[in-house]
Amino acid sequence: MTKERSIRHKYLNYWCSLPHDILKLIAEKVSFVDCLSMSKVCMSWNGILGEEHPSTQRHGLPCLLVSGRGNSETKTCISVLENRVWELKLPESCGKYCWGSFCDWLIMVNNVYSHEIKLIKVNLVNPFSGSQINLPPLGPFFHKMVLSGLPCEKNFMCMVVQRGIFGLAFWFPGAKLWLPVGKKKGQCQDAVFCNGSFYLLDDRLNVWKIDVRDIYSAYYGSLKAYDGALSQIKTGFYGAPVQNLWNEDTKKSFTYLVESVGKLLLVRRYFNLKRNKWIETKKFEVYALDFETLIWKKVEDLGDEMLFLGKSYSTSFSAKELGVGIRNSIYLCNDPMDRLATEWDDKWDDECDLRHVIPKKTRLRTGVKNWGIFTFGNENNDKPFCFRGDKNMWTDTWFTAPSWWCCRNIPPIQRK
């Protein structure tokens, strides 16, 4: 062994013997990319940083789960920070659709029949820890599910949104059935959980607030008298960001509610429909709710934040926390024209089954990208932003691969 190699080996042994608590403390202070690189220093560090442990932090890798029902025990995923395709072992998803997600939890559904009545069976699945929660079956007339947080958190709750009318239902651990709530005029376009409350977007772009504590209070406080009326649960009301915004190009825009570092954002995505086949996204507008004045304020710069938009789930990340990515940006994927549809509807069912006959590599190499990036301030660029999506292709689902799993299974990400 040469002198140089001897010195390098000596210092490597020194770093490998670093106390576990200190190593974990360092990992919590650095970006996700640096933590991933640290895990590859030696087997000791990889074992420590790859330890599985519950975490309420969204520290991990943002990825897309490719849509469609398949009979395989693996699901195709896309790591958007490096545009790499990889396979996720997920036996629990065989023959099922992904309805949405929250962090590293997926909402999986499949159609079942009970006495000739069509129902959907819902499971919350964590593909990384192997945990699974079975929920009571639902009718097929719900188009979105929102989780209040991780299932291990206190006062965890699920909310489903009915299509066609403004109707809701809630489930929480210990409940045998869904708790129906509603109904009122209008339709719910999107929903999100933020700061202890569910926020719902109606078809006029008004936002409604329902506090989780009020749901428990209405149900347990007057259990015998509860009749499922929305009036028995306190609701807050926040008007649209701009007067008459709801009827401005409503047919050529998507609207999302997003929780971002404790802020409630309303995001408008404007597009053109080409040849009745392609959806070409052109621009975005973002509004933030001022919780003190209850006024929507237009956001011109997202700062360090990166928004990830999708029909089934929208979220945000810190570019600094990730250590790679484009700050002040919106990551988007293809969304279908019908915002109230579900992937297991009959008209989508045939499309999805047909796509799974096509080899995965061929399907992912089509001219339509699975995702794109819009960066604020790019209006002066030579090439204006445009994201083209097939309106007949179902959207993929954003989820987070946790840092401990990435340390075990994913090589270091190359900085750009």
From TrEMBL:
Residue stretches spanning the membrane: none
One Pfam short name: Beta-prop_KIB1-4
Signal peptide: none
Domain F-box positions: 18-59
This protein's name: F-box domain-containing protein
